[in-house]
Design brief:
By secondary structure, this protein is an alpha+beta fold. It folds into 2 domains: about 5-55 and about 260-415, no CATH class; about 65-255, no CATH class. The protein has helices spanning about 5-15, 20-60, 80-85, 120-125, 150-160, 200-205, 210-215, 235-245, 255-260, 260-300, 300-310, 315-345, 345-355, 365, 380-405, 410-415, and strands spanning about 65-70, 90-105, 110-120, 135, 145-150, 165-175, 180-195, 205-210, 225-230, 250-255. Helix 2 runs antiparallel to helix 15. The longest helix is centred in the N-terminal third of the chain and has 42 residues, at about 20-60. The two termini are about 30 Å apart.
Length: about 425
Amino acid sequence: MYRPFSLFVALRYLKVQRRNRFVSVISLISVLGITIGVAALITVLSVMNGFDHELRKRIVGMTPEVTVSAFSGALKNWPGVARLGREIPGVTGAAPVASGEAMLAADGNLGGARIEGIRPHHEVSVLNLAPKLVAGHLADLAGPRWNIILGRDLAYDLGVTVGNHVILMVPAGLVTPAGFLPRIRRFRVVGIFDAGDYAFDHGLAFIGLGQAQKLFGLGHRVSAVQFHLRHSLDAPRVARRLVNRLGGNDYVSNWMSQNRSLFDAIATEKRVMFLILLLIVAVAAFNIISTLVMVVNDKTAEIAILRTLGARQGTIMSVFILQGVLIGLIGTGIGLGLGLLLAHNVDPVMHFIRTVFHVNLFPTRVYFINELPSRPESSQILKITLVAFGLTVLSTLYPAWRATRILPAETLRHE
């Protein structure tokens, strides 16, 4: 009895009554629509945030933040380039690399890969490959022996493991009187790494820097110098500083520019998915409009009586606005809780679907990752909640305005 009059009437109209059960069912459908829409928005965008974050982390983990290479040929004065790079604030490591494409063969199995020749003691400060090794040691690449470390999926495709041998063929070979002969060397597999990214695990292998220089005919030159930064997002700034220091004589790239199209595509997909899933909430909002319009039509006589008893137009309007707001609050609140629950347990849910229905919705070969990450962001969740609730409030304006247009005398004359 101490509740405001408008809220009291709104709550009374929300209760299920015998003569307006159909309206109550429509109200329930509206609540479910808002709940599903909000939960779907939070879950899907959290997964896409996690996918974006995980992809960035894994790309940075296997890709140097800044790379300096020659416009043509190879870098000659690479120690000078490495020294100039280390002088820039924020650069924590530099390492030379000799790289190229090659074909690998073992027991009749073939596979193409990018071969990177590294110095293990330098590479620790750039890629930190050692923690990603599931077998073998990075130090085995030091010295004169022809050893190789393969990605997990590449080793699986070739059917080899640590201790086996592979044949490596480089397209840039020798021209002899007998014809073109590719460079071929026999390597011993001394390690296998797992980067957690199919693109790297399937298409990358490491050998010693000296062996790569001989294999690719570089002499004492290298393909590039790679730099590691304290903060990966400083890559564009460090790259510009390097361009100025090198005088534009060498090509400077960074991990953000190399993968710009990928991350732009993810950002576009997030915006499109937000708009598409927001349509679910919009449909629920239209249901609220129809619900309130039916309530207004059903309560015409009661509204007329309230007007004759002294209720103002603002009071009548607030009754139906509060009714729609209550529907929106209930739907948004339940959707928020359900969405957060799913967002924090999306990987177990996907594992359950794979186990029970034998359906893999996120194959590793397509999405580059072997698990489904989720990263709810508070600002994004707040935006979803406010937009959903705002749509429900807007949907109440027309029915509430229509209720205020009822003329008591005209209505009661026909009762």
